[in-house]
Design goal:
alpha+beta; HIT family, subunit A; 5-stranded antiparallel β-sheet; globular; 3 helices; about 140 residues
Length: about 140
Amino acid sequence: MDTFEPDPRLVADSYPVTELPLCQLRLMDDVRFPWLVLLPRRPGVTELHELDTADQQQLWREVTRVGQAFKRLQRGDKLNVASLGNVVPQLHVHVVVRWRDDAAWPGPVWGHGEAEPYDLDGLATMRDHLLAEIEGLDFD
């Protein structure tokens, strides 16, 4: 049986936050945009329809609950949720908090300018706040 490994490009561009029942939750390394990625731990899956029904439901439960908590934490105006896979084919879902006055508004965040990496303190703070916000959420 294959084992799950996150795509090396996602590993290079993000930090692990926690493991949810289905997904690995990662924080994209760009302080300009609060941006999470959820990766279902299913080897070889590139499309939503390749997940069985239970996993599809679980994925959307995790995306929804994490997204609500992240938007609340960041006090955002809008929550963008997308699964593209054009560059990284491994199934993953982007969850991005947006503000009407952010640098990329109203366009997408990917491909907008150069990423500004977190410093270690900023990374730890964001991770800790996010974990506190999602602690106790029902993902089942």
